[in-house]
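Thread: D-glutamic acid complex, take 2
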Amino acid sequence: MNNRPIGVFDSGMGGLTVMRALMRRLPYESFVYLGDTARLPYGTKSRETVERYAVQASRALVARDVKMVVVACNTASVSLPAVEAALAPLPVIGVIGPGAEAAAKAAPSGRIAVIATEGTVNCGAYVHAIHARAPKAAVFQAACPLFVPIAEEGLTQGPIALAIAERYLGPLVARAKPNALLLGCTHYPVLRDVIRQAAGDVALVDSAETTAQAVAALLEEKDLSGRGTRAQTCAFLVTDAPDRFARVGEIFLGQPIAAGKVELVDLQ
Ligand code: DGL
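Output below.
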């Protein structure tokens, strides 16, 4: 039994969709969540910059005595090898591998569409990860940059969200004719309803759920499980604007976050 917390890191509040899945899946574990809100968004930044930020943020979690780090940001998961090297031998897990695994399983005929930030699309992280598991899969991608700000505005339903979803997904679905659509960005699960309406009859794959399953399996494998009698605790750290994090974060976590519980930290 290991009662140290699990560290969860994202560029901001979107990773709370992964945190939500982790909290549900692992009710006996405690968590420290770090949102790098001062430097959000990562999705439009270069790979080198995102790698530097991801390593800094992960080290800040290690300073909080975490037993494992979950890189809950799709864009930052591209930096997984650098984070692993910096934290070794601490276990580190990202969202790309579990998401790719689930997409490969959900599309036996091998037509998979991936939607993500520009950064994730440009580096082809999901394309490589899916091909590593299903070499014959046909993988199509589209960046959906407006999904991040509308999700943070709480515009998750209604005509504006649906029009944007149709604008992105109409051409993608026509071109790809996918069996599975992978939501390759932390913000997209809260837009699930409009994405489903715009994409039609296709299996939606959410990397948050599959990452939570992978974390549970890794805890067992490394004998790090916190299964005990203690109640679950969650600490929230941000690099800027704790009040906004608490307010907007509720959209992604699905439950209120008390503003007084969000701590401001400096990663420099
Ligand atoms: N967390 C990012 C991701 O999953 C989305 C927000 C950002 O661009 O920083 O790719």
